[in-house]
Design brief:
heterotrimer; A mainly alpha (322); B alpha/beta (241); C mainly alpha (347); B: 241 residues; alpha/beta; Rossmann fold; 6-stranded mixed sheet; 4-stranded antiparallel sheet; 10 helices; 10 strands; 28% strand; globular; C: 347 residues; mainly alpha; ABC transporter involved in vitamin B12 uptake, BtuC; two-stranded antiparallel ribbon; 18 helices; 2% strand
């Protein structure tokens, strides 16, 4: 079996092709914007690809955990508005980091409860799983409105991260660089855990062949819970970054991303964290490039991207799962 | 019956609405290789999967070393010291050979001693130690699958059609490997279609048809009796190369 | 029993309570203009009729074929926009209505066949994900193609004269005609679906739904039947959409293609009872009633617990979907056959 290099070329190819299509400055701005959006989408999608790859659970309520992260960011940032408004990198980063930490904890905890109460009873029953998790999404969105109100809530970026810096003649938004850095850091951490630890080894093996891992003596059910919690925590972090980016939080903020997250999973290949990074970047870049070149088509462009990639690679770019 | 390490009595298995096993009775004796033979669709793989707890028996009992295991989950059955090599080999293609083996070891890990013993049996694995298992040839994958099952001492090996789809030269290597394994008094339950392999390696034999055991006895007796072979398996085993 | 075999295709309610409920609902709907005078109540009754048909068509997919599609509202929209565009461009004539409805239906069937072929090539979960993307794409198309669809604002148009208040029959006017058009077409479509699911094909579908192994063994026949069932469901949904266009004299993305509608019919079918068709009648009546009667009740409850921290917000009338969603989850877990199943079990 030859190593398959073609899928690795798609992302660089897209970035390179875009350059002649627009001026160099525009290209720089949009590429950073696309990669940053990709990084945020990666945070939202990575957890789901592992959950699905390992347990065959497609959580239609995944968007609710993104929204939860966004609302937690609102609640954490509100009392710390002084820190957020200060001209201090330290205080600004502290607010950001705190929002992320609390959102991860809360999303993870709610995820744990969700797995116990809602998901556990429907393993291996795809129809009921889809229905039940969709029901969970409906209920969750209503709960958000009940707890935080029906109005959209503003959430401003911390002072030092709003605005742009000049890079190569282009104005690059500072927040985008932060989001990109965070996304890449999380990816690096996930990659390390997956490739260097025993748990990571089990997850990678389990994504490929759950049965065989059990036949080797591992109680993979316990692993499920851990992966589910990590997955929802990541979604929560994604929600925080997206909330600060949008600067406006509504009860649909996560649900609106559901389709893009699914597209990323399909493009990247189910069960592959690297695949979801590439997929997320592709989606982010497509949204930004097409948004500039042909705004009317931009909303449907990602769906078209998905169709094109599926025609080329029906199982996604880097499929892993059985 | 303390002679028998694994005993199945009246085991029935259903999958959905299909009744596959209709009362399987046989035993695998300690330190010996028991062959499980039969035509395609006779229920051999289902039997192995039921032993491993991958499918739940709807009736009957399975005893391992005096202990009832038919209600246990797969991980617990494996932890009792039973290793499984499925028909599909169960290799993790994205993981390296080393990582595949690592999964099969407990806290002691992959010691030099264990690796040496393994490489003595399957030298091909040594060169490809750091290579993703998906890149290996069919024969090498099978060696890895078996290697994974024996890298730590196990009490029972359950192996499903190891020679399937392999070239004769590779099959011979596997036969040699199994014969060396026999010397260490491992108990093996082996499903096989290849007569040459079965005759070379098997001590006892159980023949299945239609979800039931229709014959048990010594392998040597079956090999000697062509008429019996014909009656039990439809054709002479010698034709199954 | 002749009536039962003929009218209901042999698929009786099989429960006294259920029969009584259904009879009551049907009777009230049949006599609505006389029992509930006033344009608003009539509009509610019309909406119930339309959604009964839409939900029943979805039940054919979900309950009988075992397919979870989130793109069903798309077919609803196709029928609605078909009629809407035709009436806008061709003027308020019955010819336009027919052209629009048939055009919408043709498109719906074509798309349904493509989707049906896709559904057998991918796993169930994958398929549901893709239908979500398809539904979103349909919504995007409807809002982008402003010249045809009126974009976000939609299209407002006139309907044939016989359906307007200007048309008089004694003490009544065109609104009565409109109501009975909707009621009769809805009733016929429902009985048609009842016949479809009780046909030999329908029985094969139910067998497939219960036993996937056999389904794979049937192979090509499965593909044909599932695609046919999908096409029928899509066609019926599109006619429901055509009725909606006539009722509202307006089509727009929110009224016809929104995810909210998808959620509504999902809840109707599951709460009423999947795979029963009668569940669609119960579910539709319950959902529409909930929107009108549950809300004041919740408002009262919310007022009663005014002092307590979170509770008033939970019982706020606008949160009726929260409680229905919880009911939905409970039903999927404990009563997969919904209310109809429960009533039948009680017997």
């Amino acid at each position: 079996m030859k190593r398959d290099w073609a899928p690795h070329a798609v992302l660089p190819a897209l970035i390179l092709i875009a350059l002649p299509a627009m001026g160099a400055t525009n290209w720089l701005v949009l590429t950073v914007a696309g990669l940053a959006m990709g990084a945020m989408l990666f945070l939202m999608a990575a957890g789901l690809t592992l959950i699905f790859g390992l347990m065959d659970v497609l959580n239609f309520a995944h968007g609710a955990f993104i929204t939860l992260g966004a609302y937690v960011a609102v609640s954490v940032a509100a009392p710390l508005i002084g820190w957020s408004g200060a001209e201090s990198w330290g205080l600004n980063l502290a607010v950001f980091a705190l929002a992320i930490a609390v959102a991860a904890a809360v999303s993870g905890a709610v995820g744990w409860g969700f797995e116990r109460v809602i998901v556990r009873g429907v393993y291996g029953a795809p129809l009921r799983q889809i229905l039940v998790t969709m029901g969970g999404l409906i209920v969750a969105q209503q709960l958000f409105i009940a707890l935080w109100g029906a109005d959209a809530i503003p959430l401003l970026k911390p002072k030092m991260f709003s605005g742009s810096i000049e890079l190569g003649g282009a104005a690059i938004e500072k927040y985008r660089l932060l989001a990109l850095a965070l996304g890449l850091a999380v990816f690096a951490a996930l990659h390390l855990v997956l490739s260097r630890t025993r748990v990571g080894l089990l997850v990678r093996a389990g994504v490929e062949n759950r049965e065989m891992v059990e036949a080797l003596g591992y109680r993979i059910r316990r692993l499920f819970i851990g992966v589910f919690v990590v997955g929802t925590a990541l979604a929560g972090i994604g929600g925080v970054t997206w909330a600060f980016y949008q600067e406006l939080v509504t009860a649909q903020i996560g649900g609106d991303m559901t389709i893009l997250v699914f597209i990323i999973l399909i493009i990247g290949g189910l069960g592959s964290v690297g695949g979801s990074l590439v997929g997320a970047m592709l989606v982010g870049l497509t949204a930004n490039y097409v948004g500039f070149l042909a705004p009317t088509v931009s909303l449907g462009s990602n769906i078209l991207l998905m169709v094109l990639i599926l025609l080329w690679r029906p199982r996604g770019l880097f499929p892993v799962a059985h | 019956m303390s002679d028998a390490l694994l005993t199945l009595r009246g085991v029935e298995t259903r999958i959905g609405r299909y009744h596959i096993l209709h009362g399987v009775d046989f035993a695998a004796r300690r330190g010996r290789v028991t062959m499980l033979l039969g035509r395609n669709g006779a229920g051999k793989t289902t039997t192995l999967r039921t032993v491993m707890g991958l499918w739940r028996a709807s009736a009957g009992t399975i005893e391992f070393d005096g202990r009832r295991i038919e209600t246990l989950g797969t991980p617990d059955i494996a932890r009792l010291g039973i290793a499984y090599v499925p028909e599909t080999m169960g290799i993790f293609s994205q993981l390296t050979v080393r990582e595949n083996l690592l999964l099969a070891t407990g806290r002691d890990g992959l010691t030099e001693e264990r690796l040496d013993r393994l490489f003595a049996l399957f030298p091909a694995l040594k060169e490809r130690f750091a290579v993703p298992a998906g890149v290996l040839s069919g024969g090498q994958k099978q060696m890895l699958a078996i290697g994974r099952a024996i890298v730590e001492p196990r009490r029972l090996l359950v192996v499903d059609e190891p020679t399937k789809g392999l070239a004769p030269a590779v099959i011979q290597q596997l036969i040699d490997a199994f014969q060396r394994l026999k010397q260490s008094e491992t108990t093996i339950l082996l499903v096989e279609q290849n007569f040459h392999m079965a005759a070379s390696v098997g001590d006892d034999v159980a023949v299945m048809d239609d979800g039931r055991i229709i014959h048990t006895g010594a392998m040597a007796d079956l090999v000697a009796d062509e008429a019996l072979q014909h009656r039990l398996l439809g054709l002479s085993l010698a034709l199954h190369q | 029993m002749r009536l039962e075999a003929l009218l209901l295709s042999g698929d009786a309610p099989r429960s006294r309570v259920l029969s009584a409920l259904l009879a009551a609902i049907v009777l009230l709907l049949a006599l609505a203009p006389f029992v509930f005078p006033g344009t608003r109540s009539l509009a509610v009754a019309e909406r119930i009729c339309i959604f009964i048909v839409l939900a029943a068509s979805y039940d054919v997919l979900l309950g009988y074929t075992g397919v979870v599609s989130f793109a069903h509202t798309m077919f609803f929209g196709m029928g609605a926009y078909g009629v809407g565009i035709a009436l806008t461009r061709l003027g308020p004539g019955w010819g336009a209505v027919l052209i629009g409805a048939l055009g919408g239906m043709a498109l719906a069937v074509a798309v349904a066949v493509v989707i049906g072929l896709l559904s057998l090539r991918v796993r169930a979960i994958f398929f549901s994900m893709i239908t979500l993307a398809v539904a979103s794409f349909a919504l995007i198309l409807a809002t982008s193609l402003r010249d045809w669809t009126g974009g976000e604002d939609g299209l407002t148009f006139s309907v044939p004269y016989a359906l307007t208040p200007g048309f008089k029959i004694g003490a009544y006017n065109g609104h009565l005609v409109a109501y009975y058009l909707i009621f009769v077409v809805a009733a016929l479509l429902f009985l048609f679906l009842l016949r479809v699911v009780n046909s030999p094909m329908g029985r094969v579908l139910q067998a497939i739904r219960e036993n996937e192994f056999r389904a794979e063994a049937l192979g090509l026949r499965t593909l044909r039947y599932r695609t046919l069932a999908g096409a029928i469901a899509a066609a019926v949904a599109s006619v429901a959409g055509a009725l909606l266009a006539l009722q509202l004299r307006y089509v727009g993305p929110d009224a016809t293609l929104s995810f909210g509608i998808m959620v509504d019919i999902l809840l109707m079918v599951v709460i009423g009872g999947m795979g029963t068709l009668y569940g669609a009648i119960l579910g539709s009546a319950i959902m529409v009633m909930a929107q009108y009667y549950l809300q004041p009740a919740m408002g009262a409850l919310s007022g009663a617990v005014a002092g307590v921290p979170v509770l008033p917000a939970l019982f706020h009338p606008d949160r009726w979907l929260l409680w229905l969603g919880l009911l939905f989850i409970l039903i999927v877990y404990f009563f997969p056959a919904g209310i109809v199943g429960r009533l039948r079990a009680l017997r």
